[in-house]
Amino acid sequence: MSHTYVHALYNDDDRLKDGAKKVREMGHSITEVFSPFPVHGIDKIMGLKRTRISICCFIYGCTGFSLAFWMIWYMLIHDWPVDIGGKPNFTWYHNIPSWIPVLFESTVLCAAHGMAITFLLRSWILPGVSPKNPDPRTTDDHFLMVMPAYSDDEANHLIEAAKSTGAVEVKTVHE
Amino acid sequence: MHQDSIIRDPLLLGKKTYHQITEDVARPVEGKANKYWWLMLTIAVCAWMWGIGCITYTVGRGIGTWGLNRTIDWGWDITNFVWWIGIGHAGTLISAVLCLFRQRWRLTINRSAEAMTIFAVMCAALFPVLHMGRPWLAYFVFPLPNQFGSLWVNFNSPLLWDVFAISTYFSVSVVFWYLGLIPDFAMIRDRAKRIGNKVRYYCYRVLSFGWSGRAKDWQRFEEVSLVLAGICTPLVFSVHSIVSSDFATGVVRGWHSTVYPPYFVAGAIFSGMAMVLTLVIVGRKVLNLEEYITIQHIDTMNKVMLTMGSVVGIAYFAEFFMAWYSGDPNESFIYLSWNNAKGPYGWAFWALIICNNTLPQIMWSKRMRRNLYVTFIMSIIVNIGMWFERFDIIVTDLYRDYIPSDWTYYSPTFVEVGIFIGTIGMFFTFFLIFARVFPFIAQAELKTTLKATGDLFHNPPRKIAANGQGEGVAAHSSAHAH
User: Which burial class, exposed, middle or buried, applies to B460 when counting CB atoms under 10 A from its CB (0-12, 13-18, 19+)?
Assistant: First the structure.
């Protein structure tokens, strides 16, 4: 089944935001906005929810910390405690200060890599994936707003809204 | 919304538009390298090959090919290790710490500084492996289950903390750097698509991971960049503190001092900033990026370098003060008898004082900070001085230990010097290739600040008029009239 989309191309980020606001005020939705750099405020205008990736990062960090803590406890206290310069080697709470560097590094390692991998997988940005931007100028200096149109009337309203807010090119695309 | 300050100088000159930023950053990648680039690459590769030869000789014949002995068992190897790790820290400082401080001036230098970090850490990581007597058993440092009853590593030792710290630092820096590169690779990919260059299109299509610039992707990208910056900041401080603990937790006199972690971190930023300046002064000229990496940037980096150099100077004073205040005869022997200054390593001591303390004072002068030749020479002097700092800490605190019959001198052999030259060659090989294959400036991030800091949109007043209004205010507000 084919859908109709209106593609509005802007060459200024402030005019893009004006256009997006107008489209949303008219009650229409915006499927996607392609831009060469992050346009601050566009996600709110589009109605995108806040990303939860920093919560993931915190969870991965806690995992890294727990993993390292268990590993060091197992190796140095439980499995093979070693007499290193007469330092207490039978309880974990005596040794925590000297473990802090490794615990910290493991937290950072798991948090950073976990978050990066989650980001790549959630956004499906991986080697070999084909790019989805319809216009190659959107990585240079143009901004493309893609809006679904369920009728010709709606398409005309969207075209008019885009042109009135300074879009440099507006076209209808059937997919 | 887009405003910066009306009295600050613009950070981006030349009245650039978004498209011009794209063109200027893509030009070195899309253009051909000139003969000087090839000449420098040839020299760097030759140096690297010489280093590989010396490394092969070391691994094949043993540490006896070096000048180390039982008294001075750490010499050029660990000096070079700490020097390279220190250099790496400025890149993370610029990318991560200055991001948290919302310093926009970092945007034109953070990409090349992060690349410098990654290549410097690669060079640094060679030395702990090479200085092991049996580097083919280097995997012993990892806590892997084994056949020796599962003999585990010593988590209480800073030598092991180093393993975790440096592998974390390297991998997280690579991730941070690469994620930032993805949108810029997409820019080059799409330009290649538009002009029909298939080879470049496919190469950069793979490198860009299919980045499309969707709003949700940018939203996640910004959050990930901010959180990574927040994670990398304590990493900078912890990694070099851990490296300093290699010395500070030991009982060698002169090393056993609590001032080492902040002292080393400040020293790392000092030398790292000097290396960034060396690379960026040449890079901006050769790649025609003088309107992006402006004199204001050079001035600000010099200020950071001077600040950190002063902290290092205070740390030197703190060491002397504690040697006197503690009354410890061992510390007095090192510091207060002036053994360092007058003994056989006096030349190293004075090289350190002149290069690190005396000459950088020139940077208090604004004219000197804004002079490219002076800055370039000073950055090399600071790097030499910081190398001597690590050499002095290691060798001059080891060569006269607790037993006078052990006192001896250390000279590096050509093998050690060759390995060091090899790492310099490796570093410059990678950096030269980076400058031509990777976009030198983080152009996507830079574009977000064009309206706030570019001089097309932002004209600071040169003088404040009688009514308190600056000249540039009218031009400034008209650029935002919408």
Answer: middle
